[in-house]
Amino acid sequence: MDFSDKALGAAFAPRRLGDCHNVADFRRLAKRRLPGPIFHYIDGAADDELTRRRNGSAYDDCDLVPNVLAGVETVDMRTTVMGKTIAMPLMLSPTALQRLFHWHGERGVARAAEKAGTWFGISSLATVSIEEIGGQISSPKMFQLYVHKDKGLNRSMIERCKAAKFDAIALTVDTIVSGRRERCQRTGFTSPPRLTLASMASFAMHPAWAANYFLREKFELPNLNSHVSEGTNIALSVADYFNTMLDQSMDWKAAEAIRAEWGGEFCLKGVMSVADARRAVDIGATAIMVSNHGGRQLDGSRAPFDQLAEIVDAVGDKIDVICDGGVTRGSHVLKALSVGAKACSGGRLYLYALAAAGQAGVERSVGNLRDEIERGMKLMGAKSVGDLTRENLRWR
After folding, report:
1. Residue 215 to residue 340: CA distance in whole angstroms
2. Pick the catalytic residue: 40, 148, 293, 332?
3. Quick check: bond before 304 cis, omega within 30?
4. Is 293 known to be catalytic?
5. How far is residue 40's CA from residue 181's CA, in Å, rounded to a whole number?
6. How many CB atoms lie under 10 A from the CB of residue 375?
């Protein structure tokens, strides 16, 4: 039998939650259940999508070298990131617009993260408020801050995070302008979805999604709508939102001022160079996410895993380094930890699952990855994440 990805997609197309055994299965089910513009917003990336593909394939160029006879009846998967000990070295990155993908949205992802005992983040462009998530879960939570031209809006979001007792702010630093996401241009994706003949036809072909979107609570961006109407009452493409609403003058001085205003654990999301990693340390950041925004910004940039070693070597003893992007297998996490990352994070790994089956899908996808990490550690002869080192790796 042909077990290529194309053949698997045809022969083993999942139709229900129990058919999903990995991230690729959830992606196929999400594609069945979402209108085209919504699916391609999750799945797509910038320009030719070279970087998006490289984010995953980078792990293929590195092999694991296991040790045996290590007595691994039990293994300890805990790690500490930004002062919080989590049950496994995998975090759920903040992503925008989650109630577009399933009506459970950020609420379902937050509950799944709490059950898994790991970090969860919401975006400035979340569809659930800072206050609601702050009151819903007690597990570690971060807020992804997009710096807007409206300084009052920026201050408001930071103060709301303080009041809601968020544990960290992740400042997005790689989105001064939007990447050119051609799939979104072709499908006409906007937030909120704009009703056209083409979009209505796509919605009609996905009646369960349409019923949930149109008949449940009104779509909104509650962390923004006290200051701006764009994205909630005025339909815009994500590119138009970023290009018109975000502050393109943001620099290191501005980032340092935000860190001081926040006063707590502070992460820079989107660092890809050693020089920037060192600057992050200099301004007092406590973590960096080595990330290229899922390949959605600068196409042709390197994969986070490819940049990880030199960044860890430069600052890994001073700041928590998180490898963000391309993670679809537990073995990817093991490789990043062996290089020296404190943890991995990702968005699509749970967004496909959310779209496919709501909170239950996220729980299953995260549980699958957790099992892969635990099984992989045992097969590697690693009793704890600290046992994973570069001695366990060989590059092709």
Report:
1. 47
2. 293
3. no
4. yes
5. 10
6. 13
Per-residue model confidence (pLDDT) at position 2: 43
Length of the chain: 396
Mean pLDDT of the chain: 94
Enumerate the H helices of the chain as residue ranges. Answer: 5-11, 23-33, 36-43, 50-57, 105-116, 130-136, 151-163, 182-187, 197-204, 207-215, 238-245, 252-262, 274-282, 304-315, 330-339, 348-380
In the chain the domains, ranked by start, together with CATH numbers, are: 24-62+75-382 (3.20.20.70)
Q: What is the pLDDT of residues 289-320, one digit of tens each?
A: 999 999 999 999 999 999 999 999 999 999 99
**pTM of the complete model:** 0.94
Q: Helix (H, G, I), strand (E, B), or coil: what is residue 121?
A: strand
Cα–Cα distance list, 66 to 71, 371, 388 (Å):
13, 18, 10
Closest listed residue to residue 340, CA positions, set 371, 369, 319, 326: 319
Give the Cβ contact number of residue 73 at 10 Å: 6
